[in-house]
Amino acid sequence: MRLFVNRIKSVFISYSKEDKALIASIKMIAGSKPYNLKPYKIATQHTSVAKSVKRGFKESNERLEYLGDAVLSVVVAEYLFKRYPFKDEGFLTEIRSRIVSRDSLNNVARTIGVPQIVRYDKKRKTPNSHKSLFGNTLEALIGAIYLDKGFKHSRSFILNKLLKPHFDIEELINTTKNYKSKLIEWTQKQSKSPSFQHLETIDKGHYKEFIMEVRIDDEPIAKGHGLSKKKAEQDAAREACLKLELEEQ
Amino acid sequence: MRLFVNRIKSVFISYSKEDKALIASIKMIAGSKPYNLKPYKIATQHTSVAKSVKRGFKESNERLEYLGDAVLSVVVAEYLFKRYPFKDEGFLTEIRSRIVSRDSLNNVARTIGVPQIVRYDKKRKTPNSHKSLFGNTLEALIGAIYLDKGFKHSRSFILNKLLKPHFDIEELINTTKNYKSKLIEWTQKQSKSPSFQHLETIDKGHYKEFIMEVRIDDEPIAKGHGLSKKKAEQDAAREACLKLELEEQ
């Protein structure tokens, strides 16, 4: 009912030039015009340009990003759940995390035109400060679509405008990024030396799980687990790359 | 359409005695009868009693738990988002994690009668092996409701049967568990000694964030952050309690 009222209302509002441009962009990205423009305006507003609305509270897109992240998670979860009926939850979790990773969300966001609608303080830009800007804005946009049009609509946006056209899931499954080489390369540049330590083998009955730790100059950085020492090393290296923020380099 | 067909079908199926009991329990817990019983049967089947269905793949409730966890997350996210319009995403994330914590899901699951419907191998029970059994089954049940009746219905189940009757959100916000005392108590029992180390102060412009590390017998266990050293210590202690699985003791 609320959605219906917003839909009717939206016909009678007269918009500013700026708003009209945003509406056109949203239509291009999401496939249909907003009913209620407000959440989209917030979604495209980075914290660097957000204004205080109440006792120091800034209305930036970070709250919507939190909401959109959850919506994205459940839609991808269901999609993988149904597509792979004989794969266990470890597999589903891993593939989902590759789909919603910062790297891939940033890439998709760039492709579908998010950079053209996000407003942020370009003067404050440093190499790191806006690293996830586009991916985060895409999540906020999902949050806005959810608030504006409900679950079904946001589910169909995620499946038909993001997941199916921009992800090759089979390739994602078969590609194992070589995090270990990436980490070793980085440590060499920093004149540091990495090492891998076998911490534990857990007997799981019908299989064994290995826990490996990666250290840099003997300082423990991250742990990883896997069904072989090699896989556990890769997992630890992946975790270390994330912690050290090497993902986008 | 699919839901409608299942609804019609469900009227004509003749169920076994066991199935009828499960249907009655689901009705009691969820407020309405299943359309399609199959996902509920899987949801109430712990991996310890799961049978192989295909090349070693066991149909246990773990996949549904993964799905239900995502559905729960988005519903709680939206609820908090709307209830606290002037709170930032850090607050929303923290309160959500308290709501969906292992402890609280286990408690709610016990209260609403999940122990009566879950099937698991009682012989294999060790103090730790079934620690999260009821909470996990509750998540799997949410997954089953989602598959059987869709998003709206599972959202209303979560809000009206779990969140509103079983959580006092205001209390949850105001109660800060004293994780530090819990950790100190535990280490004393183990004749070990804990210490807290200030690692870093991050200048965030208008405020500072402190990073503290907790060590047990000089071995780093966990890190925490907060707006004061005391808060960062609590956060590190909370993280350590989770890692050491002290949460339910």
UniProtKB/TrEMBL annotation, chains A, B:
EC annotation?
A: 3.1.26.3
Q: Where is the DRBM domain?
A: 178-246
Residues of the active site are 69, 139
Q: Which domain of life is it from?
A: Bacteria
Protein family per UniProt:
Belongs to the ribonuclease III family.
Q: Function, please?
A: Digests double-stranded RNA. Involved in the processing of primary rRNA transcript to yield the immediate precursors to the large and small rRNAs (23S and 16S). Processes some mRNAs, and tRNAs when they are encoded in the rRNA operon. Processes pre-crRNA and tracrRNA of type II CRISPR loci if present in the organism.
Q: What is this protein called?
A: Ribonuclease 3
Task: Record the organism.
Answer: Roseivirga spongicola
Question: What are the top taxonomic ranks of the organism?
Answer: Bacteria, Pseudomonadati, Bacteroidota, Cytophagia, Cytophagales
Q: Which gene encodes it?
A: rnc
